[in-house]
Amino acid sequence: MTRPLNRALLVLASASPRRLDLLAQAGVIPDAIEPCDIDETPLKGETPRLAALRLAAEKARAGAQRHPDAIILAADTVVAVGRRLLGTPPTSAAAERMLGLLSGRGHRVFTGVAVVSPGGRLTTRLSETRVKFKVLSAVDRRRLLACDEWRGAAGGYRIQGRAGACVISLIGSYTGVVGLPLYETMGLLAGVGYEAP
Question: Is 59 helix (H, G, I), strand (E, B) or coil?
Fold first, then answer.
């Protein structure tokens, strides 16, 4: 498939295969994939909602520095239990602690999406989804950890994987929980003149 001559390059500033799959589902194939390595440590006193937006914006800006004439798309997902932010667990023990916090409780998944246009204008959107897990038994937790889906996953789980069987309810954007809310993303891309083939 060739890119229309009048359209800027679209660069996805993410290494996530899930985000790439979600874009393909919407008919969008980035011209380039270039993850941006930024410090994802939350700022002191920063809410999960603001962290998701800030991190997505920082990734998009970093991509725009390398590709000033392209459309840069970036996203960041965080899981929150109350004001407590659950990022990506570094170890299986950390993932197990996160699953313990989520067991039998509701939590929120925030995904910030950011787009930088070729002119350097940044626009952002936030997806907020409420998810409730069943009470996770020791067997449930063991299975979720053994399949390694916790690796690279905010909150230590992937809803499109085995954890999907533990979800009692979801209010909001399923694609936002996976990592890229398509409604918000397509709106941002349309706002900078990008049209999916």
Answer: helix
Rounded to whole angstroms, the Cα distance separating 88 from 102 reads 14
What are the tens digits of pLDDT across the range 162-195? 999 999 999 999 999 999 999 999 999 999 999 8
Residue 21 CA to residue 25 CA, distance in Å, equals 6
37: confidence class by pLDDT, cuts 50, 70, 90: confident
In this structure, what token pair is assigned to residue 144?
Answer: 């979720």
For 95-140, the DSSP string reads HHHHHHHHTTSEEEEEEEEEEE-TT--EEEEEEEEEEEEPPPPHHH
Give pLDDT, residue 36.
Answer: 86
Contact 73, 10 (CB under 8 A): yes
The CATH class for the domain spanning 10-191 reads alpha beta
3-state secondary structure of 147: coil
The Cα 20–Cα 14 span in angstroms is 8
Residue spans of the domains in the chain: they are 10-191
- Confidence (pLDDT) at 6: 61
Tokens of 195: 């049209």
Determine the residue type at 32: A
Active-site residues, by number, are 76
Give yes or no for a contact between 124 and 113, defined as CB atoms under 8 angstroms apart. yes
